[in-house]
Amino acid sequence: MAAMRVTRLLGPTAAAALSALSGARKAGVHTSSARSLRYGWLSYVLGERTTPRFNQNSRIITLDGNLSSGKGAMAQQLADSLGMLHMPEADTCYMDRMTGEKQPLPADFNGMCSLERFYAEPRAADGNSYRLQLWMYTMRLLQYADAIEHLLATGQGVVLERSPFSDFVFLDAMFNEGYVRPECVQHYNEIKGISLCEFLPPHMVNVPLSYLQSIERSYKDSYLPQMSEKTDVLAYDMTKALNVQMLVDDIKYSKFEGGPWAEQDDTTYHQMRML
């Protein structure tokens, strides 16, 4: 009643302005949310389960390769052949697209780094090279999280171009060339250690042998041995003709019996979806 008396005392014009102000406040804060979060503990309690959606192609598959090597077209064809979702390689503006921005935000909101400047001045004293690599790791991690979310929510497998698990080979190459300092490598490993541990590795990793020659040490000595312990690894000689059907056949013949994915059930999938 007190609020009604105050509105009447303000008069018609002031009351209308107050009403308009109240309506404007209802709009809330703009968040650019790309999708609503629907899954929760209540869904699990009411009987929603993940495994009934899965089939033989409910996998996360990654393809690594050099820039402009055709891995994007290969990944798209592979996804179409297996009925999977193809996620193009993440770039510095990946988060802008996922949050529905009409155009990329300035560099101040995208890692404070520049890919063009890295090519022009890789040894920049302000640390642009390391900020770029750390930001790319973050974008690849976000994309990998989106891929797992899609797999668990729909049962449809996903084909990715690179992943956060192989991102460190680029940092190693930067360090070997003198683009980043040892402190940067230490910081990167700390960030990776507390973030990547939350995710299961891909079901399968595909690496062309020609790519191993360009970043040979990191891939052969670190990445492939690590991944071989927990996932299937396929390596191809790209000097020979490789068509999508050959890759599809190799994937179909792979049993995917080992690795941490084989240890999961509906309870652990529920916990993953709640992250």
Would you give an account of this structure?
The radius of gyration is 24 Å and the shape is globular. Helix 3 crosses helix 11 and helix 6 runs antiparallel to helix 7 (168-176). Strands 2-3-1-4-5 form a five-stranded parallel sheet, sandwiched between helices. With 275 residues, it is an alpha/beta fold. The protein has a single domain (48-274), classed as P-loop containing nucleotide triphosphate hydrolases (Rossmann fold), CATH 3.40.50.300. Helices cover 51% and strands 8% of the residues. Mean pLDDT is 81; it is low at 1-33.
Summarize the structure.
It is built from 12 helices and 5 strands.
Overall CATH class: Alpha Beta
Backbone shape: globular
What is the domain tally?
Answer: 1
Strand content range? 5-15%
Q: C-alpha Rg, in Å?
A: 24 Å
Distance between the termini: 46 Å
Can you tell me the CATH architecture? Answer: 3-Layer(aba) Sandwich
As for the CATH topology, it is: Rossmann fold
The strands making up the biggest β-sheet line up spatially as 2-3-1-4-5
CATH homologous superfamily descriptor: P-loop containing nucleotide triphosphate hydrolases
Q: Kindly state the number of beta strands.
A: 5
Cofactor: FAD
Subcellular location: Mitochondrion matrix
Protein name: NADH dehydrogenase [ubiquinone] 1 alpha subcomplex subunit 10, mitochondrial
GO cellular component, one term: mitochondrial matrix
Main features:
single chain, 275 residues, alpha/beta, Rossmann fold, five-stranded parallel beta sheet, globular, disordered N terminus
